[in-house]
Every structure is written in C-alpha cells, then in structure tokens.
C-alpha cells in the first residue's frame, strides 16, 4: 500500500489533541490543499472561515451539541457553501433582468458538492502532516445563533466544521467498522435491499449493541431511532436546516 492510501485508510476522527499550536506553515498547506480540490465549473462555491480565537471555539463547543473537546482544538475550519459572492458579482455587473433566473436548488447542491470535496482535501492534507481532525455536523444546528456568530449572509450555509490538532504522542487509533462493501457498492444501477439483506447488513451493529448489559431486552433499531431520528435534538436540527435552506433564497 502506498503512502497516500495509508494516510487515507489510517485516518480516524480525533477528539484529543496535543497541546501544541498548529504551525502557520502546516495550516497554510491544509488550506491550500482544500482550495485545490475539484470544483464545478471552477466556480469555487464555498468559503472557509478559519477560527483561532479560543473564546469563539468555546462558544462553538457549547452551541454544537455541548462537545467540550471542540474548545481544545488548535484550529477550526468552517466550510460554508457559498453563492453569495457570485450572486453579488452578478448584481454588481448588472446581468440580472426582471425575468432572469436567480440562484436556486441546483446551485445549492453544486455548492454542497464543492464544499464537502474541499473539506475532505483539508482532512487528508492534515493527516499527511500528523494533524488529526473531526467533522462537526452540528454547525448546522442553532441557525439563528450561528448565523449571527459567523455573520453569514444570504446564499450561505455552514455545511461542516472541522476541528484540527496534532495527534498526541503514542495515540492508539481505533478504526470503526463500516458496512460490508456489498451493501454500499452496486454494479451499474441502484440495488434495493430486501429484508434479509438489511438484517445481514446491520448484523454487526446489532451484535455489538446486544453485548452491553445496559441494552438487555432492547433492540438496536429501536434505541438508535429514539436516540437519533426521533430525538428532540434532530427536531431542532431539522428546524435549523429548514432555515438555512430559506436563507439560500
């Protein structure tokens, strides 16, 4: 296995960081790698907000589902899907007319793609430098608070936040199992899994769940649904996401 594949396959989400500031040289390389990612039509439909202020980090640690480790990161990059700059440019150049089309869902989805591709480039660049990271999807929560904190205008959505820090010395990486490839990769067209195949797909997760004494008599599906999909947290998450979508128009 070559070094690139080793870097990708050894990556884990890192939530404990060495108490050392990431060097300017390393942070520049991470950001430059993000900007060099593939982008639809070379439009670069995203912005990156670099957070170094510890007070801001602590605020984000609270607003992003109360995760204290966020405040211990060396640096944070927030990847924002962004058509505000293009929209403003169009307006400034006078290209809009009464019947002219305005940015819509198509631009939004393309911007989503641009943004997440760039963020993963940043992750891999960091890994190659001994710098770990953790994706924080909770930046999409608390719409009103994050919009004000980050001064986000219309046609912007903070799709993802990444915490960065050097790996602690002798840190033991634990890789979490994914679903088997047969349930993820399909040939030529989508395959709808039947009941038996779905049961096999979730077999490992159900087995791990059942080995914990606290889960005796409970089902993995029921508890996961209650904790994630049907939770108060997800209701607030969905409310905020709806607001971000409205912010795009």
Automatic annotation (TrEMBL):
Disulfide bond found in the keyword field: no
Oxidoreductase is among the record's keywords: yes
Domain Nitroreductase: 8-166
Gene3D superfamilies xrefs: NADH Oxidase
Domain of life: Bacteria
Alphabetic keyword roster: Flavoprotein, FMN, Oxidoreductase
SUPFAM superfamilies membership: FMN-dependent nitroreductase-like (SSF55469)
Pfam family, one: Nitroreductase
Classification via PANTHER family: OXYGEN-INSENSITIVE NADPH NITROREDUCTASE
Family: Belongs to the flavin oxidoreductase frp family.
Protein name as catalogued: Nitroreductase
Organism of derivation: Psychrilyobacter piezotolerans
């Amino acid at each position: 296995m070559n070094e690139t594949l080793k870097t990708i396959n050894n990556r884990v989400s890192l939530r404990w960081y060495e108490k050392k500031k990431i060097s300017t040289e390393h942070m520049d390389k991470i950001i430059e790698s993000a900007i060099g990612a593939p982008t639809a039509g070379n439009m670069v439909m995203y912005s990156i907000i670099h957070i170094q202020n510890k007070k801001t980090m602590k605020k984000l640690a609270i607003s992003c589902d109360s995760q204290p480790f966020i405040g211990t990161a060396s640096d944070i990059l927030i990847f924002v899907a962004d058509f505000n700059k293009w929209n403003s440019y169009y307006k400034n150049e006078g290209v809009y007319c009464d019947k002219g089309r305005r940015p819509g869902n198509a631009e939004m989805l393309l911007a989503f793609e641009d943004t997440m591709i760039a963020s993963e480039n940043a992750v891999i660049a960091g890994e190659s430098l001994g710098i770990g990271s953790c994706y924080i999807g909770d930046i999409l929560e608390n719409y009103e608070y994050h919009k004000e904190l980050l001064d986000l205008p219309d046609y912007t959505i903070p799709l993802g936040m990444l915490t960065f820090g050097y790996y602690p010395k002798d840190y033991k990486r634990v890789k979490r199992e994914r679903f088997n490839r047969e349930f993820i990769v399909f040939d030529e067209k989508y395959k709808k899994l039947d009941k038996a195949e779905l049961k096999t797909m979730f077999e490992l997760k159900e087995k791990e769940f059942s080995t914990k004494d606290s889960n005796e008599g409970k089902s993995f599906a029921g508890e996961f649904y209650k904790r994630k999909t049907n939770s108060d947290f997800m209701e607030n998450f969905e409310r905020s996401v709806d607001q971000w979508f409205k912010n795009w128009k």
